[in-house]
Write a structure and sequence with these properties.
Blueprint (H helix, E strand, L loop, with lengths): L6 H9 L6 H14 L3 H12 L13 E3 L2 E7 L2 E7 L16 E4 L3 H10 L5 E4 L3 H10 L3 E10 L1 H25 L9 H8 L25 E6 L12 H23 L1
């Protein structure tokens, strides 16, 4: 009689298939985590599927990317595109959150979709309040800023997906090493033991022991992806501060214009 293929068998088959999308694989991990009563495993897989923005779960270090912050606009009769933004170009309240490094917060399905549609194009990631910041940056300069965005090379996005797949392969390997011969499904204790060798973040914001190789940077920005002329705005950690500052400045500009008119 043919042996039933276990959850772990199916997971191993799919994760080792490089052409297989990560999204359905991560759904299998959620089911496996539920069967093994592992909240950290379920939380990590769910966050990788749905994204990290708007949650209390910190974005993993392997989702921190180096990318230039660029701007499009005009200076007199001259039109410029893809001009790199200097830290001195940014207002004081935005310098801590915007720069040449960002935190990638969207789900793996979105990342895979972007790479499939535009494999050879830089992905443009818009910071929050990009339009308001562009207006603010144009107030005290002869240069008019029309757009702000990070330009991320496709290889950087591929690297994030590779980090996720590597952790899934490592999970399978650790579970295989912990399970007894002929055992079909891992026990909760075996899953907990396997997680000690994998870099994930638990739902209570605590980190499981990290031993997997991680490409660490110190980016402070975070973004959601868009391609070509489409920019989707995510939330920065200091968004309330930026929002308040921009609102105050725009109000001051409006008041000045009203007084001048009077």
């Amino acid at each position: 009689m043919r042996r039933r293929r276990s959850r772990l068998d199916r997971l191993e088959r799919d994760v080792l298939n490089e052409s297989r999308s990560l999204a359905p694989v991560l759904r299998q991990v959620i089911a496996l985590g539920g069967h093994a009563h592992s909240e950290p495993l379920r939380t990590w897989a769910l966050r990788e599927l749905q994204g990290y923005e708007g949650t209390d779960t910190p974005i993993p270090d392997y989702r921190r990317l180096s990318a230039p912050l660029l701007m499009d606009g005009t200076a007199g009769m001259y039109q410029f595109r893809g001009l790199q933004v200097s830290m001195f170009d940014l207002p004081d309240f935005a310098r801590d959150d915007l720069g040449a490094e960002l935190r990638l917060g969207q789900g793996v399905g979105q990342i895979e979709s972007l790479l499939a549609r535009h494999p050879d194009e830089a992905v443009k990631l818009g910071p929050p309040l990009a339009a308001e910041l562009a207006v603010f940056m144009s107030q005290s300069s002869t240069r008019q800023v029309h757009r702000l965005y990070w330009a991320v090379h496709p290889s950087a996005l591929e690297g994030v997906l590779d980090q996720v797949r590597t952790r899934l392969v490592q999970l399978v390997g650790e579970l295989r090493a912990a399970m007894l011969k002929g055992q079909q499904d891992p026990t909760p204790e075996q899953v907990a033991q396997a997680l000690q060798s994998i870099s994930i973040v638990a739902g209570d914001n605590s980190s499981v022991t990290v031993t997997a190789p991680v490409a660490v940077t110190h980016g402070r920005g975070s973004a959601q992806a868009s391609i070509a002329e489409t920019t989707r705005r995510p939330v920065l950690r200091r968004l309330p501060i930026v929002w308040t500052s921009v609102a105050a400045v725009m109000a001051a500009i409006a008041l000045t214009a009203w007084i001048t008119w009077i």
